[in-house]
From TrEMBL, chains A, B:
CDD domains: ALDH_F18-19_ProA-GPR
Natural source organism: Azomonas macrocytogenes (Azotobacter macrocytogenes)
Name of the encoding gene: proA
Pathway: Amino-acid biosynthesis; L-proline biosynthesis; L-glutamate 5-semialdehyde from L-glutamate: step 2/2
GO biological process, one term: L-proline biosynthetic process
Name of the featured protein: Gamma-glutamyl phosphate reductase
TM segment ranges: none
Main localization (coarse): cytoplasm
Pfam families attached to this UniProt entry: Aldedh
The protein's role, per its UniProt record: Catalyzes the NADPH-dependent reduction of L-glutamate 5-phosphate into L-glutamate 5-semialdehyde and phosphate. The product spontaneously undergoes cyclization to form 1-pyrroline-5-carboxylate.
Leading EC class: oxidoreductase
Listed Gene3D superfamilies: Aldehyde Dehydrogenase, Chain A, domain 1, Aldehyde Dehydrogenase, Chain A, domain 2
Keywords annotated in UniProt: Amino-acid biosynthesis, Cytoplasm, NADP, Oxidoreductase, Proline biosynthesis
Reaction(s) catalysed (UniProt annotation): L-glutamate 5-semialdehyde + phosphate + NADP(+) = L-glutamyl 5-phosphate + NADPH + H(+)
Lineage: Bacteria, Pseudomonadati, Pseudomonadota, Gammaproteobacteria, Pseudomonadales
UniProt-listed Enzyme Commission number(s): 1.2.1.41
Length: 421, 421
């Protein structure tokens, strides 16, 4: 193209800002029609989608993408089914926009409350998985936000084919095409432009590896909803039920190794360690999990465990490796988690009410759990319908981010000619 | 001091982080005792406070501070009374921390809800007014946040004297001294350090001139809750009640000229302009307000009004100057506000339900009002008890920021040994 990348991105930004004004006042019915029509369009365009995806996969192989990357990139009939189902589910979620709450009379006579509103324009930067295009577009659309989607260059043909279907949905509902825009250039400068246009973009949601997210957070001139590390803990309290403890510590580590909500460090009260650790070590051994323990864990488990280094406590393995530490008290467990954790998801296994209550209050993480596996930390499991990401930040949205995280609230004031004196 | 500014600020940061853990689990009673005891200490230390303040005023005069600055800096018996009353009012506000809402059962059997928690450590950077020291410290304390306060160097003696009283309050309640720390150095490098310590500071709230806030927003490596411009509008709809329109347009401009929520541009529907503008122009003339109008306003009001330039629509005067524009429709008014406004506070005067509803929905500002003066946009008037500032950002807190804006919510999950399948 003869247009510069900056000019191109500015054009997208201006279009998105204008579309966001229309979308902010779109009816719930309009938004749902767009989502349902996009689902139908996807269903009818299966051949085109798979053909576009094959092109991406061929290019990916030619460019030497590894198998894990190719797997994330690949669309199957099942994955297209899931995208269609995802659109329909978002259509059935309650519309958060326009809800007014807590209109209360003040001593002055004015009535004050809050109205939920869209953020405006959301920029999404992501890698490989084409289904993110649907997840992001559908959540943003339902929450009344215009979206600019910048997927990985390796998925460009798939993303373009998906975008065509979304455009059909928007057209059916009479909504502007610029409500959802896919960045058509694979030039990396497009990302740099997208994250530095505060006039046209209200928030950036990066999804991908830690390197990408750190780079974007550092360079962005607009707010970023982000997720960095997932160093999650399970703490088996002295008052834990043995059966629940084993079940949860097993599931939190072994159900899947790669996700961010998988346990990386197991903390065990020394008063229950001799009962709970040997059977757990047996399970981990059978499932091929390498154990790295503190000195006391090593003494207890012998050669079933390697010695953990200081670095282990601060490491997100995303792999079949688990660090284990014995603690003398709940206080020590909480201190460990607040020091080494990533404020993502941490669980206590206990039958003791007071210990549970203290853990919930004092562990400073986006999701805190009692007697449940850390693997539940997920927008779908939390009832959000879907998620655009998980935030490990404290401001705005914390934990799994669904429709509400893509909105804000403004104050609404009703008067009858009231003036301030 | 022999310690470098960076070392000093790091020490404050570490102390604040440790204190924030204690404060996060402090009881409501403890926090209220600290606030009440600080109020008593202030009451007993009136002589010391006024002496310290006299020193600041003398230095300020010697350093050539202007009268407005000296006025903001000065403590009077009345202002000390207000600080004491402010502390007592914050003590009476409900404690937001620990509130759990919406615990709902999910299909998996887990129960999921949200718990309100402190942000952690709040850094406040402000100028001259010593009362901000009390407002900020009390709101942060009540919301369970440790605070690092960096007031203007011109108020250093006053702020230190106030800090002594706050420390007495903390000690009475058995809370760590580092819950509230006043930066003791007037070295400007202290600000640079404070806004670039994400490990120790969770959010920065700058209060002061636009230059200060822009500089801090640009350089900060931690989130900033900020307020930039206050270009507020009143739109007099065709269906306005004349009496209410005149009362509100008068009050919004003339009750005080300097505040951020004062009206800067008056928009008037052309169908009502001939009725409402002449009497309003008369009022403004009597109150010494300079009028700058669009061409049609000039035609209507003659030599009572100067010609407005394009720049006027985008200017926050903070002065007895008002720009006036006639519009042909509600749409034109909304478009003008969304284009030239600062997303702060905008009001419509109308008796028409549909126009009011559209204005509330489509004007993208932190406070939107029907038949009330923009001057009401204020934490106290909105029932927040007090405010730490007004946010013109969309993420996290929008509009007047009170206790809730200094908190976040984390997910809470209850299970009974639940694992993910």
């Amino acid at each position: 193209m003869t247009e510069s990348v900056l000019d191109y991105m500015t054009r997208l930004g201006k279009g998105a800002r204008a579309a966001s004004r229309v979308l902010a006042r779109a009816t719930t019915a309009q938004k749902n029609i767009a989502l349902q029509a996009a689902a139908e369009a996807l269903d009818k365009a299966r051949d085109e989608l798979l053909a576009a995806n094959r092109l991406d996969l061929e290019n990916g192989r030619a460019n030497g993408l590894d198998e894990a990357m190719l797997d994330r990139l690949a669309l199957s009939t099942k994955r297209v089914d899931e995208m269609i189902e995802g659109l329909r589910q978002v259509a059935t979620l309650p519309d958060p926009i326009g809800a007014i709450r807590d209109m209360r009379f003040m001593p002055s006579g004015i009535q004050v409350g809050k109205m939920r509103v869209p953020l405006g324009v959301v920029g999404i930067i992501y890698e490989s998985r084409p289904n993110v295009t649907i997840d992001a577009a559908s959540l943003c659309l339902k929450s009344g936000n215009a979206t600019i989607l910048r997927g990985g260059s390796e998925a460009i043909h798939s993303n373009r084919a998906i975008a065509v279907c979304i455009q059909q949905g928007l057209a059916t509902a009479g909504l502007p095409a610029a409500c959802v825009q896919v960045v058509e250039t694979t030039d990396r400068a497009a990302v740099g432009a997208l994250i530095t246009m505060p006039d046209y973009v209200d928030v950036i949601v990066p999804r991908g590896g830690k390197g990408l997210i750190e780079r974007i957070s550092r360079d962005a001139r607009v707010p970023v909803i982000k997720h960095l590390d997932g160093i999650c803990h399970v703490y088996i309290d002295q008052a834990a039920d043995l059966d629940k403890a084993i079940r949860i510590a097993d599931n939190a580590k072994t159900q899947r190794f790669a996700p961010c909500n998988t346990m990386e460090t197991l903390l065990v009260h020394e008063g229950i360690a001799a009962q709970v650790l040997p059977p757990l070590a047996q399970i981990y051994r059978e499932k091929g999990v390498e154990l790295r323990g503190c000195a006391r864990t090593c003494t207890l488990l012998g050669n079933a465990v390697l010695a953990a280094s200081e670095e282990d406590w601060a490491t997100e393995y995303n792999a079949p490796i688990l660090s284990i530490r014995l603690v003398d008290s709940l206080d020590e467990a909480i201190t460990h988690i607040n020091r080494y954790g990533s404020q993502h998801t941490d669980a206590i296994v206990t039958e003791n009410f007071t210990d549970a209550r203290r853990f919930l209050t004092e562990v400073d993480s986006s999701s805190v759990m009692v007697n449940a596996s850390t693997r539940f930390a997920d927008g779908f499991e939390f009832g959000l319908g879907a998620e655009i990401g998980i935030s490990t930040d404290k401001l705005h949205a914390r934990g799994p981010v669904g429709l509400e995280g893509l909105t804000s609230e403004k104050y609404v004031v009703f008067g009858d000619g009231h003036v301030r004196t």
